[in-house]
Structures are given as C-alpha cells and as structure tokens.
Amino acid sequence: MTPMDTSTATPDSAAGHPVVELDGIRMSFGGNVVLDDVTLPVRPGFTGLIGPNGAGKTTCLNVISGYLRPDQGDVRLGGRSVVGGSAHQIARLGVSRTFQTPRLIPHLSATENVLTGAGRHYRGGHLSELFGLPAARRDERRLRGQARDLLETFGLGEHPGRAASRFPIGSQKIIEVARALLNEPRLLLLDEPAAGLGAEDVDRLVTGLTDWAADRDAAVLIIEHDLELITRLCPAVAVLHFGRIIQSGAPADVLRDPVVVEAYLGADFAAGD
Ligand SMILES: Nc1ncnc2c1ncn2[C@@H]1O[C@H](COP(=O)(O)OP(=O)(O)O)[C@@H](O)[C@H]1O
Ligand SMILES: [Mg+2]
C-alpha cells in the first residue's frame, strides 16, 4: 500500500474501514425532517462535517451517540448496528463526544474534570473504590497520570489543580476535549470545538488532537465552521445542507465546488479564494 496523499483523499478512498457509518439516516421532529437519507462513513483519522446553522450537524452527532433514535436508517460502529442503544451503552463501546457549550463541573480542578471522563476504563468499580482496594488505587493513580498527560498534550499542563471555572472559555472547551479522550475512544465526536477560541487556543487544539491521533487508529468526526481548521486537520469533509449530504471529498475540492459555495460559503469566500 502506498502512503496516503491526504490532499487528494476522499471519504471513500481514504484508508481503513469506517469506524462508524451512517447509512440512510432519516430523523424528524414532529414532522419536520431534519436529516434525510444521510449516509456518511467516518474512517480512522479526521473527518470534517460542515454546513450552515440548522443543517442538522449536531443532530448527526446525537444520532451516532445514541441521544436520538433515527426514524430510519442504520448506524454501524465497527460494522455492528448500534441503533436503539442508549447513549450510555454507545459510550461504553468507545464513543466519546463534546458539546457545543462546555459541560465542565465548574468547582472541580482541570485534572478532576478530565478524570470524570474515566467511566469506561474504571476497572475497580464502586466496591473496590469504597473499600480502597489496591487495584482501585492503582487505577486512580494511572488515570490521574493520564489526565495530566492529556492536559500537557493540549498545552494546559501548567495549572492542573485550578478550578475549571477559573480558566478562560477557550481553555474550558479544550479541557472538555481532553476529558473526552481519557477513556481512549475509538470514535471522538467534536461539536464546534473551535467556536469562541482565539488563534492561540485553536493552535493548542489542533496540535493536541494531531499528537493524540498520531499513533492511534481512532476516528474523529469534527463539526466546525472554521474552514481553515477543517482544511488543516481533515483529509475528508462532508457538507450537510438542509439535512442532506450535498458533497464530500477532500476539502480542497469540496470547498471549491460551486454547489457548496452557493449553498454555504457565499460569494465572498469564492471571490476571496
Ligand atoms: N430535539 C429537537 N427537537 C426539535 N427540533 C430539533 C431538535 N434538535 C434539533 N432540532 C432542529 O433540527 C434542525 C437541525 O438542528 P441541528 O442539528 O442542531 O443543526 P446544526 O448543528 O447543523 O446547526 C434545526 O432546525 C433544529 O431546530
Ligand atoms: Mg450544531
């Protein structure tokens, strides 16, 4: 196999079987069709999902992560249907997500907040926690180390003990990403992680995610309006418009497609490109 040229990869030609696959998803709310026949393979590495506000991007994440059950279609995780599974069950299969607005516990430290992502790998369980069994104590030490390493990865290792609420909003969003990575997800779903971030934080985010993904097979599906970030991170991008995927492929091609420009990007982008 030749090394993948990420500049020309499309979702269908990119390496690897899909980690998750949306297949013919239809989702409506009270008769309002929000996703219509959405088919989207998400392979290892980064996949971008873009589209105007209200296009249905967050709804896609909610369907994948089990927060919503689609009217029609299938969601396959590692080839296996997970439609009908609860959010909790799907999380246990290795799916992590962040939300458009950070959901940290404000008074807990950065490290403690990252640790709340531990659910899936806490082998000790409640009883050993209660009795302070050695296995649980070892787990906790290991997880604390991992939490601090993740904060370092994202350039936030300086104040691991500082309360989450005392970090700027951009850093809080990055702490939430670190939390989503603690349990070694095979699929990470990020909902506008760069919204509200300054240039420095965007760099932290991109560097941290790239470092994290480098030696892993995980897939990252990232919703984002920052098209520069999408172009930097994602060899493949799909465009959602009024609940339909209208185009997908390499960002360089997709962002030039007249249909995409018309639907989403507007004349300014086309002229300025
Ligand atoms: N739980 C819900 N109940 C009713 N309508 C919803 C619900 N969630 C989303 N919608 C509607 O679905 C459409 C797509 O929303 P969303 O997926 O949040 O779009 P995006 O993330 O692309 O901005 C919007 O019109 C929104 O109002
Ligand atoms: Mg959204």
CATH class of the largest domain: Alpha Beta
Count of DSSP-assigned helices: 10
| Strand order in the largest sheet | 6-7-8-3-9-10
The hetero molecules present are:
adenosine-5'-diphosphate, magnesium ion
Query: What is the CATH homology-level superfamily of the largest domain?
Result: P-loop containing nucleotide triphosphate hydrolases
Task: Note the topology.
Elements: E1 20-29, E2 32-42, E3 45-50, H1 57-64, E4 72-77, E5 80-81, H2 87-92, E6 95-97, H3 110-115, H4 125-131, H5 134-153, H6 169-181, E7 187-191, H7 199-214, E8 219-223, H8 227-233, E9 236-241, E10 244-249, H9 251-254, H10 258-272
Parallel strand pairs: 3-8, 3-9, 6-7, 7-8
Antiparallel strand pairs: 1-2, 1-4, 4-5, 9-10
Bound molecules: adenosine-5'-diphosphate and magnesium ion.
Describe this structure in words.
It comes from Nonomuraea cavernae. Keywords: ATP-binding, Nucleotide-binding, Transport. GO terms for molecular function: ATP binding; ATP hydrolysis activity. Residues 20-267 form the ABC transporter domain. It is a single chain. By secondary structure, this protein is an alpha/beta fold. It folds into 2 domains: 1-94 and 186-273, P-loop containing nucleotide triphosphate hydrolases (Rossmann fold, 3-Layer(aba) Sandwich), CATH 3.40.50.300; 104-184, no CATH class. The chain has helices spanning 57-64, 87-92, 110-115, 125-131, 134-153, 169-181, 199-214, 227-233, 251-254, 258-272, and strands spanning 20-29, 32-42, 45-50, 72-77, 80-81, 95-97, 187-191, 219-223, 236-241, 244-249. Strands 6-7-8-3-9-10 form a 6-stranded mixed beta sheet, sandwiched between helices. The site of adenosine-5'-diphosphate (ADP) has 10 residues, from helix 1.
